[in-house]
Design goal:
This protein has 137 residues and is an alpha+beta fold. The protein is built from six helices and three strands; from the N terminus they run H-E-E-E-H-H-H-H-H. A three-stranded antiparallel sheet has the order 1-2-3, with helices on one face. The N and C termini lie far apart (33 Å). The relative contact order is 0.20. The protein binds FE2/S2 (inorganic) cluster.
């Protein structure tokens, strides 16, 4: 393991211990809670929109999960602010693992992408593009 990967590990630990944008919004445009089906951990994401609902203005997340899920949600929350909804939906699993910078075992991929999934699902429900009763786990 090289120094680079060590740096990423420290970054993950730092975000886990001091999560950015942790909390809830008083008046979000949408709120969504989602679960990692493999462990039952949940994350809640509150989002306030701008530009007539096209751009993400503010993000807060809360919940309970492992270091990877919490750190990933924290790092993602910083990137989401200013992103368009279209860009949010374009985020793929590879973008998340790249952001984390460490190798994620197949078992932990669901942890890594939990925050992204909850935000994407919440945005789709908000626009009426996804029936909350029909979310596939
Ligand atoms: Fe539950 Fe990672 S073990 S989110």
């Amino acid at each position: 393991m090289g120094l680079g990967s060590d740096m990423y590990r420290q970054q993950i630990l730092d975000h886990y211990k001091n999560p950015r944008n942790y909390g809830e919004l008083e008046d979000p445009d949408f709120t969504h809670v989602g679960e990692n089906p493999s462990c039952g951990d949940t994350i809640r994401v509150d989002v306030a929109l701008d530009d007539g609902g096209e751009t993400i203005d503010t993000v807060r997340f809360s919940g309970d999960g492992c270091a990877i899920s919490m750190a990933s949600a924290s790092m993602l929350s910083e990137r989401l602010e200013g992103m368009t909804i279209e860009e949010l939906h374009a985020l793929e699993t590879d973008d998340i693992t790249e952001m984390l910078g460490v190798e994620i075992s197949p078992m932990r991929v669901k942890c890594a992408v939990l925050g992204r999934q909850v935000t994407q699902d919440g945005a789709k429900i908000h626009r009426g593009e996804l029936d909350p009763d029909r979310i596939e786990e």
